[in-house]
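Proteins fold reproducibly. Look at a sample protein:
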Amino acid sequence: MDHLTDAPIANILILAGVIFLAVGLFGHIGGFIGSIFGNIEAGKSSRILAAVFGTALILGGAWMHQQSDKPASHAAAPTEPAINPSTKTSPATDANTDSKTTPLLTHADANPKQAKLTANAYIPKKPQPYAAPTIPSADREKVPASPVGVGDDRLIGTWTNVIPMFGGIHTIEVMRDGQGLAAHIWDKCSSGECDLGVHHLAVSGNTSTYEYVKGNLRHVGSMKVYAPNVLLVSIDIYEPGVSKQRHHNRVFANSNLRGPVQVAFSNYLDSPGQKAFAMTPAGRCAWQLKSSTADEATQRALQYCQNHGWLDCRIILLNDEGPQ
């Protein structure tokens, strides 16, 4: 039925061809068609001519229908592009293939007992970016909104002082407290670890601050994640009636710290003499052991960073505590 309207000229030709063919076959036309075109009477020669002409019109109309159907059939079934068999697909290039966890320089003055690590520098692998899972648009409205917490989530976890000491903070456990953060603090005492309680953290940017009173001394500490799984803590101790306070810088490692950096901290701790440990926020580290002076150890560790183009490299440990 679609062909009655999709090609009007072809339909007219076919209809006219049928009328002429009818004249050729029957010699006359009457009835309904005759009421439109008038009664037609044809002689023998006219009938032959009408039959030939009618047949030609029917064939011409059918041919026009065939031509009009070709574009539609091609549009309905598009051909797929040919694949060149000689074309080879190259594998995706990994952006981290040039970043290797490789010790770079052997430390000439290393203690022979320090067989666990024979290098004085470590370059961590570049972390892979986190790809958040995509949520279909139809389901996004069903996902409940997550509460926005105040403070750096990287603080959450258990942190241990890299340099164990008697009478100083040994462990800090940071946890969520409502939408804020709190720190449970222990120090090293004669009975082992003494619980100093849980204290709310005041947050300012990436720095979180706690405060507590022990005896007649007020302790104020500020903490900041400096590198992956490495926490810097600045501690001020105030005595009543005295304007001068004691200040300490400490380095803490997260319980997730593993691999070369953990070994580097261990070897640094085991090495005697003047020494310095430098690190970048990206986790690259260099250290100098058994130097003549602390200044010499500092300069050599920082020079190593500079020679390798490491940005924001700083001394986080000088001898057995953070630089003051």
About this structure: The CA atoms of residues 189 and 214 lie 13 Å apart. Confidence is low (pLDDT under 50) at residues 72-119, 143-147.
